[in-house]
UniProtKB/TrEMBL annotation:
UniProtKB keywords: Amino-acid biosynthesis, ATP-binding, Cytoplasm, Glycosyltransferase, Histidine biosynthesis, Magnesium, Metal-binding, Nucleotide-binding, Transferase
Pathway note: Amino-acid biosynthesis; L-histidine biosynthesis; L-histidine from 5-phospho-alpha-D-ribose 1-diphosphate: step 1/9
Regulation: Feedback inhibited by histidine.
Transmembrane segments: none
Protein name per Swiss-Prot or TrEMBL: ATP phosphoribosyltransferase
Catalytic activity of the protein: 1-(5-phospho-beta-D-ribosyl)-ATP + diphosphate = 5-phospho-alpha-D-ribose 1-diphosphate + ATP
Histidine biosynthesis HisG C-terminal domain location: 212-282
Keyword Cytoplasm: yes
InterPro entries per the UniProt record, alphabetical: ATP-PRT_HisG_long (IPR020621), ATP_PRibTrfase_cat (IPR013820), ATP_PRibTrfase_CS (IPR018198), ATP_PRibTrfase_HisG (IPR001348), HisG_C (IPR013115), N-reg_PII-like_a/b (IPR011322), N-reg_PII/ATP_PRibTrfase_C (IPR015867)
Source organism per UniProt: Mariniphaga anaerophila
Database matches in SUPFAM superfamilies: GlnB-like (SSF54913), Periplasmic binding protein-like II (SSF53850)
């Protein structure tokens, strides 16, 4: 069988979560310190480790079949690739920001201004749509420093917590796009490669579905089963197993971690005992 070639960021913000998702999908893949191509031990897949900027082109050219990259990078590069799956990590936004001390009357502020960014295409697109004529100054990193050193009047860059903006005395005034990590693919993969990609997506979805979910087991008097069940929506309905002790049952279900502390008091009040909460690795429907 042919291998599916996947492009992954060598190091940086996407690398760790990309590798974790692949490993939790049961695929034995490691990145060596200098080995930039690596074959999975137990899945027909081969990884190419690259800088994130090069991933859209590598996939569009067919050197890799798929890749994991920020949606921002995919949009900026504008290559012929499709999103096979949104991955939910590396969430951020691309925003326009100006010095904190300046008044902001609206997007027209940017008319005639100089804006520093690493994302000139996305920015130009926004400016055109809003009939703004501004000068774009391309800079490949440390964009937030530009206004402070007199290189530009404003910036267009990645924002997540906003703390880099605050540290550089800037304020976010327009959010242009929201981004997250995406699995991109070359359109028109061979049937054989598409099959491997489908299996990869199936596994990733099983892993992600279980995130933030716990398996809960508890004992309850039989007459309380209905009441306890109403507190545990579960996957379909909770599993109920009779205990050796007459009149008691064990109930099993799935619960969202966020709901857990709220539900636990109600469960105890309803008569549940011996409550066990255990992690779930994968969920397959
Ligand atoms: N602060 C952040 N919070 C969340 N996601 C982020 C943040 N900064 C960047 N990202 C996302 O992670 C991607 C990779 O960011 P990173 O800083 O590793 O890129 P890079 O420095 O261009 O890396 P490379 O060396 O591979 O070119 C970005 O394109 C963006 O999608
Ligand atoms: O809103 P925040 O949470 O502060 O995040 C935004 C910052 O994060 C990224 O930089 P990163 O920390 O990856 O540094 P780098 O660009 O120098 O790699 C991005 O380029 C912004 O500068
Ligand atoms: Mg990069």
């Amino acid at each position: 069988m042919k291998n599916l070639k996947i492009a992954i960021q060598t190091k940086g913000r996407l690398n760790e979560d990309s590798m974790k998702l692949i490993q939790e999908s049961g695929i034995d893949l490691t990145i060596g310190r200098r080995k930039l191509v690596s074959e999975a031990g137990n899945f027909p897949m081969e990884a190419l480790f690259l800088r994130d900027d090069d991933i859209p082109q590598t996939v569009a050219d067919g050197v890799a079949d798929v890749g994991i990259v920020g949606e921002n990078e995919m949009l900026e590069k504008g290559k012929d690739v499709v999103i096979a799956k949104r991955l939910g990590f590396s969430k951020c936004r691309l925003s326009l920001a100006i010095p904190k001390s300046m008044d902001y009357p609206g997007p027209q502020f940017f008319n005639g201004k100089k804006i520093a960014t690493s994302y000139p295409k996305i920015l130009q697109n926004y400016l055109d749509k809003n009939n703004i004529s501004a000068e774009i100054h391309v800079i490949s990193g440390s964009v937030e420093i530009a206004p402070g050193i007199g290189l530009a009047d404003a910036i267009f860059d990645i924002v997540s917590s906003g703390s880099t903006l605050v540290s550089n005395r800037l304020k976010e005034v327009e959010v242009v796009i929201y981004s997250e990590a995406v699995l991109i693919a070359k359109p028109g993969l061979s049937a054989e490669k598409q099959e491997i990609l489908d299996e990869l997506i199936f596994r990733m979805e099983s892993v992600q579905r279980s995130e933030g979910k716990k398996y809960i087991l508890l004992n309850t008097p039989n007459e309380k089963i209905q009441e306890v069940a109403s507190l545990l929506p579960g996957m379909k309905s909770p599993t109920v197993v009779p205990l050796a002790e007459e009149g008691w049952s064990s109930m099993h279900s799935v619960i969202a971690e966020d709901d857990f502390w709220e539900v636990i008091g109600k469960l105890k009040k309803a008569g549940a005992e011996g409550i066990l909460v255990i992690p779930i690795e994968k969920m397959i429907f």
